[in-house]
Automatic annotation (TrEMBL):
It comes from Champsocephalus gunnari (Mackerel icefish). Keywords: Hydrolase, Magnesium, Metal-binding. This is Uncharacterized protein. One of its GO terms (molecular function) is metal ion binding. Belongs to the 5'(3')-deoxyribonucleotidase family. It holds the Pfam family 5_nucleotid. The keyword Transit peptide does not apply. It comes from the Eukaryota. SUPFAM superfamilies: HAD-like. The keyword Repeat does not apply.
Length: 178
């Protein structure tokens, strides 16, 4: 913003439109990293309207990470139980008469999910319930190119660093486990 700051008083920066910023800086869409703390008012609007790269500030992430570090083993156990359930049903189809007894596994999964949720306090996690992502987590992943608890984390990278998402396979592209 220093290039813009030399052309306009700082007051104007707080009230100017995204179109004006793009024109004054002579940059377009992907060349701007917009930092905001509101997923719809900041992140979604700037991405859809201008095509800007977006960085979402989520202060609650610090608490989420502290708890996740302590409780990750419960999540891993949930994943193992889910895989075990899938294995029980793997060779069954709509014509199968046998019905595996899964009550003990389901009960253990419910207990683990409840314990994980309560680790985050009465309101639970902002990002997940048990092994499932909450709506806010899916919106973060969908709309924000980057997210962090603070924009100060950007100081760990050079000014001209190019952030890129890791390549992700679609379900039909990944190898099937037999």
């Amino acid at each position: 913003m220093s290039a813009l700051g030399s052309r306009l008083p700082a007051e104007t920066l707080t009230r100017c439109s995204s179109d004006l910023i793009s024109d004054l800086l002579e940059v377009k869409g992907k060349d701007i990293l917009y930092v905001g703390d509101h997923i719809f008012g900041d992140i979604l609007k700037s991405k859809k309207r201008q095509g800007w790269k977006t960085f979402l500030i989520v202060p609650e992430l610090n608490k989420e990470l502290l708890i996740w570090d302590k409780k990750q083993s419960m999540f891993e156990e949930l994943k193992r139980l889910d895989f075990f359930l899938a294995e029980l049903y793997k060779h069954l189809d709509g014509c199968s008469q046998e019905c595996p007894d899964i009550i003990a596994i389901q009960t253990r999964m419910k207990v683990l999910t409840h314990r994980m949720d309560m680790s985050y306090g009465q309101m639970g996690s902002l990002l997940r319930s048990g092994s499932s992502q909450m709506l806010f987590a899916s919106q973060m992943l969908r709309y924000a190119d980057l997210y962090s608890a603070t924009c100060l984390n950007l100081l760990h990278y050079p000014f001209n660093y190019h952030f890129m998402a890791p390549p992700v396979l679609m379900p039909h592209e990944s190898k099937l486990r037999c």
